[in-house]
Amino acid sequence: MNPAGVRVKRTLSNRIAEELRGDLGAGRWKAGDALPPVDELRRRFGAGEYAVRTALKRLRDEGLVSVKQGAGVTATGKGTWRWRGRVAFVAVGVPGSYYSQMLAHQMSTCLADAGWDFVFIALPSCPSKPLDLTLVRRHVEAGLDFAVCYCSEREIFDMFASAGVPYIVFDAGVKSDPHAKAVVSLDFGECFSEVAATLKSHGVKRLLEVDYDRSIDRSFKSQLLEAGISVHRLFGAWEKPGRWRVGEMREAGHRLVAKYFRDSHNRAHPPDAVLFDDDYFASGGIAALFEAGLRIPEDIGVVTWSNAGNELSFGFSLARIENDPIEHGRALSEYLLNLLDGRKAGLPRLFTRFIAGESL
């Protein structure tokens, strides 16, 4: 068959054109690359000059090669490019977060540049309902060459493992998995040490952690306790699990902090500093601190988790525990491309940094 799907006679020139078309489609010659000279092609196919030139003319008519006097025959790149394979990025419970979207966008760009089709599968989670894996199953059935799991759900790991799809687990609180090619985690060590030291230098004795779903890191808590800082954790429950909307995040932060300071004891004995899980979350919580009559940083200090490129402005610089999804996406993509190409590579080091600001 020719590209138009019309059956053609199996002549020698057609066979030569078909094989060269396959070489072009496989990327043997990229746009601008010169094809071998006619004499070399004659020897390769055991054909005469007429048959080779007829095949090249057919490829020229299809737009796959360019024939110019003095320049020989060069590939145009038209209609020859194909994806090398498909890679899925599965995020559960955080599909709307800035970090996961920017991370996936950066990985998509890096992998596409290397010829890999990238699929972002976002799954909302709800504690009262089983996780719907229909979308993941459809992509597996359609064919996947690799997967990145930004989640901790074992049923997703098991699905990939049973289908023979290799995968890695990224930053999901999973320390090991018997079938995963690797488990990649963010490194908070140095960042947490800097936070604890900074809090101590500012005379913080009591820290209030305002969060949803995630408890404070044990090593970080140990460092705080060693620095003489006690930690009180204030948690809420999502009214709409699996959804991350800016307005709802702000309202949730405001609701938690406002409720905390409606207690007369808490108003009379406020913490020295507050650690917020998210900058949007902090925006509502900081408003509630102001409403409680507290000044920042004179009365109370503020530290918030944040992402590079998504910092909120409150008229002063926030002290931040900051992730950089673009930097992390590049490092994770480089590591993944090594795996996809069969090269050995050490686990990427993905760091979180502490940025001291005026809110402390």
Distance between the termini: 71 Å
Name given to the CATH homologous superfamily of the largest domain: Response regulator
The beta-strand count equals 15
Shape: elongated
Question: How many domains comprise the coordinates?
Answer: 3
Instruction: Return the CATH class of the largest domain.
Output: Alpha Beta
Q: State the order of secondary-structure elements, H for helix, E for strand.
A: HHHEEEHEHEHEEEHEHEHHEHEEHEE
**Helix percentage:** 25-40%
Rg of Cα set: 29 Å
| Number of helical stretches of at least 4 residues | 12
Query: Strands across the major sheet, in which order?
Result: 10-9-11-12-13-15
Low-confidence stretches: 1-9
- Structural class, from secondary structure content? alpha/beta
CATH fold call of the largest domain:
Rossmann fold
